[in-house]
Amino acid sequence: MKSGVFIVLFAEQSFEQALDTVKAAGLQAVEIGTGGFPGTAHVNAKEIVNDEAAVRRIREAVDSRGLTISALSCHGNPLHPDKATAQSDHEDFVATVQLAEKLGVETVVTFSGCPGDSEGAKYPSWVTCPWPPDFLTVLEWQWNEVAIPYWKEQSAFLRKHNVKVAIEAHPGFLVYNTETALRLRQEAGDNIGVNFDPSHLFWQGMDPIECIKALGDSIYHVHAKDTKIDKRNTALNGVLDTKHYGDILNRSFVFRTVGYGHDDEFWKDMVSTLRLVGYDGTISIEHEDGIMSVNEGFTKAAGFLNSLILKESAGEMWWA
């Protein structure tokens, strides 16, 4: 396995400076944002996909530092009920897939998307319970009339370009847990897999180790991000929490740097279990820690992750 980082963390740096930061930290791979929510601070797929010189510069900048690109990421909502938003996110996805092919990158990371409740909707509607029965009607329409047709079409498009998509399961979108990830894969195509991010599973009360075993070879990319559960706030209000992420003291959960939500034993088990199901790709740091600065969070995560990867490579892990 390789250790890497999602370099949107270094949006204030130039692309080359960000690569130098990654190299200096002893990491081996970079995940690059190319549009959608990650933004285009380093690479704008729509602008450069047909610019061969720009594509070559990206490849040479990465190769010259002995790094690899683990994935291109364009997290967005191509199923958004606002047609302009959906079209923009779809165009980001299309350009990112085309750019990935030119760069020789196998994987594009994004979200499944979430439609509204009907054709006339203005905002996405995420269904979280089966009653009143209106919700199940909405959910059936979202999957059968919007999501499955869209992703079947994208699966065919991906095959033409020899690229896979790794859907990041995240509450607020149709794919948010194990069974929804596997459903989309079964319905739309086996080149649609998972970007495994345990932080989004922790706060839903899921067990990431068991999820890895269930997802198996559908895991195409992995994020390293932790979650700290506040026991008191969760006991009072449950796991569904709409308070701002900055309201750390009062939230049921907050995202943390790896090792600051769950201990070494969990992360050792996670890396070992990934290997057991056949994953030998990159584990990419995603820093969204509201307590630590960018530099502190990245430095601690890189040291922690490099140590895990080194021990795993030496066969010193606690095999699940």
Question: What does this entry show, briefly?
Answer:
Helix content is 43%, strand content 15%. By secondary structure, the chain is an alpha/beta fold. Helix 8 (208-215) runs parallel beside helix 10.
Q: If strands are numbered along the chain, what order do they take across the biggest sheet?
A: 1-2-3-4-5-6-7-10
Number of helices: 11
Low-confidence runs? none
Which geometry do the CA atoms define? Answer: globular
Query: Helix amount, in percent?
Result: 40-55%
The first-to-last residue Cα distance is 17 Å
H-E order: EHEHHEHEHEHEHHEEHEHEH
Largest sheet: 8 strands, parallel, barrel
Mean pLDDT: 96
The whole-angstrom Rg is: 19 Å
Strand content: 15-25%
The oligomeric status of these chains comes to: single chain
Structural class: alpha/beta
Q: How many runs of DSSP E, i.e. beta strands? A: 10
GO molecular function: isomerase activity
Pfam family, one: AP_endonuc_2
Domain Xylose isomerase-like TIM barrel: 20-306
Organism: Cohnella cellulosilytica
